[in-house]
Automatic annotation (TrEMBL), chain B:
InterPro entries: NirD (IPR017881), Rieske-like_NirD (IPR012748), Rieske_2Fe-2S_sf (IPR036922). Residues 16-132 form the Rieske-like [2Fe-2S] domain. This is Nitrite reductase (NAD(P)H) small subunit family protein. The keyword Oxidoreductase applies. It comes from the Bacteria. Coiled coil: none annotated. One of its GO terms (molecular function) is 2 iron, 2 sulfur cluster binding. Keywords: Nitrate assimilation, Oxidoreductase.
Amino acid sequence: MTTSHSPRLIVIGNGMVGHYFLEQLVERGAHERFAITVFGEERHRAYDRVHLSEYFSGRDAEGLALGEADFCARHGIELRLGEHVSTIDRSARTVTTERGDLPYDQLVLATGSYPFVPQIPTVDDGTGHAGLVYRTLDDLDRIRDAAAGVADNTHRRGVVIGGGLLGLEAANALTSLGLEAHVVEFAPRLMPVQLDDEGGRALKRQIEALGVHVHVDHATTEITPGETHRYRMHFKDHEPLETDLIVFSAGIRPQDRLARECGLTLGERGGVMINDACVTSDPSIYAIGECALWSGRVFGLVAPGYTMARTAADQLVGLEGEPFAGADMSTKLKLLGVDVGSIGDAHGHTEGAISYRFIDEATHGYRRLVVSADGKTALGAVLVGDNSYYDTLLQYVQNGIALPDDPASLILPHSNGAPTLGADALPDTAMICSCHNVSKGAVCQAVEAGCSDMATLKADTKASTGCGGCTALLKQVFEHELESRGISVDKSLCEHFAYTRQELYSLVRVEELTSFEALHARHGTGQLGCDICKPAVASILASCWNAPIMDASLVPLQDTNDTFMANMQKNGTYSVVPRIPGGEITPDKLIAMGAVAKKYDLYTKITGGQRIDLFGAELQDLPEIWRELIDAGFETGHAYGKSTRTVKSCVGNTWCRYGVQDSVAMALTIENRYKGLRSPHKLKFAVSGCTRECAEAQSKDVGVIATEHGWNLYVCGNGGMRPRHAELFATDLDDATLLKLIDRLLMFYIRTADRLQRTSVWRESLEGGLDYLKDVIIHDSLGLGDTLEAQMQHVVDQYECEWVNALKDPEKLKRFRTFVNDSRRDPDIIAVSERDQPRPARPDEIKALAVEISS
Amino acid sequence: MSTSCAAPHTTDAVYLCHRRDLVAGSGVVAWYNGHQIALFHLPARPGEADVTDPHENATDRGEALYALDNHDPFSGANVIGRGIIGHVNGEAVVASPIYKQHFRLRDGVCLEDPEKRLTTWPVCLRGDDVLLE
Ligand code: SRM
Ligand SMILES: Cc1cc2nc3c(=O)[nH]c(=O)nc-3n(C[C@H](O)[C@H](O)[C@H](O)COP(=O)(O)OP(=O)(O)OC[C@H]3O[C@@H](n4cnc5c(N)ncnc54)[C@H](O)[C@@H]3O)c2cc1C
Ligand code: SF4
Ligand code: FES
């Protein structure tokens, strides 16, 4: 417990390092010795800046936040957000904010950096859209607003000034906002800090191939009002370029204003000078993270900041601790889907260093390995286009592992069995996760202590929860350790099948099995199956062969919803949802639906999926209801199955003044193609007629948005419990290519997803992520394209409305009897009227009714 | 539960329905005197005439028949007969279609909450007649 006499510790800055520092304090019990106050000028509590860009692809502020929301409160730490510290008075030992002064005994600066914006004469139109930056959540909101405000009669364009790491990330963000992105770089190559000339060139070609325009060697001289876009940028020795917004990403500067004004020692080019203990020139003030300058260097990455935080926390509680000794600035990134890696001395600055280079002009790949003069140790490396070499090279550099006789083999294409460094070749001290200081030894210890899955490992060691760069290596080491102890991870579907869903799918396909019994007899254990494996197998059989689901052998496998082709409600009645493709419906059909609803006294509601749901149908009425609906031209909507649900559409260019394509026609094409397709989980689609996106396509498993030249395809979005924005997959597709890609994507999902896994979760679990998916689906890297299309075509050709099929067969209709030996209805289904429609009576209402009758 | 009737001429056996009314591997519901009786029919699987489940009466056909209350105590709806049948830890069970609790076919006990137990009835097949004993 702290008291009013406890020494006061103030932390300025609640960013990534500031937050990590608090966790380190708590871990060392310092929160019980100090009265701690933290100031953060942003309105959000600490969040994951490294993954800031995900704010544009589905994560919100809460999803990005670090640690539990009540972390500070729980540990008695006072967190004051939205409060800027304006001065430090070192002689009085106080800090000042707009709310007054607060005394400290120990002070920690964790103020991070601010984006550098070069002085360029710029037209002032009061919007600030020509001077945006990319650092905070609020910055991203401003960029989003600026992009949204652009008039739509022209195509929208955004420029990023600065072709470094962050600049390219910002360009990617602009693309995801639907803008044509341009990168303007002053230097003659991209990523001048990390890459050499050749690497920069390879990266430029790859990025241009993705549709981002790159202008190197461009010095911006002036920004004036534009003609076709908001602004016109002028360059020295080059043609001007027009754009609707400009994001500056020309480097960061340590946020050292407070330190400067209170007279702490700074570096020549800024940064608060610290020693190995992270103490500044004032012994009661520490500086950690990006604002700190150590040995003449600032560190613009999280890992070194975290190390400083541990050092400072040790100091404060009087522990010996590790002195800060600099940090490795190696980085591995995916920029716009292109792998880029830079390790150690990438430029070969070390005296006598020799380089090996591999240049692939066909796919614009580039790799460089820098080794010592004697050829014995690796000093650094540059990778463009393929980071699969990164982990191995990093280990060679970091751990001084002796190079093979032919060092060049480390960067040559893998095919010829080049020596890769297996997990067992790494020493125990090898750093696996540099963000959280987790060595191979620590992973082994966790396994020794019984940890047997990645999620627990991450929770226990924190490995891979920082920048995420180490995930692949961590998994490799972890699995190797498990295997070497003879532990295998149980992935069985249930007690009846020691297989995953994916394996069962392959068995069904390869052995051409068409029944549960056949699969169970050959590959199952125990009897009967259960409510896990039966519906899963039924779904696999349907995805493969699409036989009518009322067929006798399939009936016992289905959930009640599939069995009766309607959704069971809480009182045992069903809802009836006819397909209304694209949400388009004729007045006659509306009237027919109304007539059915009226006749069977069904509660009627417009659904969130642009169709109409009729609730409260009794089992024995389902066939008659459907006969009437089918006569009126309806077919089943598969609201019950794990299958294609709806394709939402907007009205499109037929009516809407902004529409650029016929979104309704495309929605109908898609819905009619994939209706009846059964899959690991339900599938939702939408088609919007222009970028205003009225159909909300970016929240769907498959989203299609019209462009002037065709269709943009978005994939793997989700509403529901954990919303996820769909990701842009391909642009300006013609109709045929669009359908081809969707065919392949859906069949690949069906082939590889887990049971009850929506496309969003599946996509997140795919190793290699979106790029891997693009490789497989667009570039056909597995050579599966034709097969997947053929499999989809088979399902499409097999389609028949399940209700039409059932109504033809008296045997199947016998299922719809409430009682097999009596024609009465279920007497316990009781409805009352509310807002002029029926609804199930509540238990208290039923009780009251019973009393009325008996009295 | 039972299959062919132990005493072929039990006098007070009640006729419920015909074998044709049953659905192999699944359930149907019969009405008897104010009770809703869910009937589950597990036909023999090829080569499994000697049923290994000690709780099932082995017969020449190797099939089994169970009768349980159709009323689901968790949702209050009459839906048990529309549940999916399976085996969990060696016991034949039905899963309620509403909130998915499992009930043992042989005695109606709920696996998730043994306090809750469905009424069961002795049923059997005599020829093609489904009888309540
Ligand atoms: C009827 C409807 C609500 C309404 O009155 O509007 C509805 C009703 C049900 N939804 Fe839904 N959902 C309905 C639109 C949605 C939407 C909106 C949409 O599709 O645009 C969503 C969010 C979008 C999404 O799925 O990404 C939605 C997300 C869910 C989820 C969460 C899925 C997830 O991935 O997180 C479930 C639970 C599940 O599937 O496991 C669910 C499950 C259900 C079930 C099936 C629950 C159940 O088992 O009883 C409801 C029964 C439907 C019935 O009885 O007919 N419903 N549900 C909507 C039917 C649309 C249709 O025409 O088919
Ligand atoms: C888009 C993006 C991508 C990145 N990707 C990577 C990556 O892949 N790998 C990697 O290692 N690093 C990456 N980084 C860098 C990483 O985010 C930083 O290294 C890290 O955030 C530094 O943490 P910090 O706490 O020092 O600074 P910050 O996180 O910037 O936190 C400083 C906080 O202090 C607040 N503050 C400043 N002055 C005051 C004051 N006077 N009063 C109150 N509060 C104040 C600021 O508002 C800010 O919230 C990325 C950064 C960005 C922007
Ligand atoms: S999305 Fe559709 S309705 Fe919305 S503006 Fe575009 S064309 Fe019009
Ligand atoms: S190295 Fe950053 S999370 Fe492991």
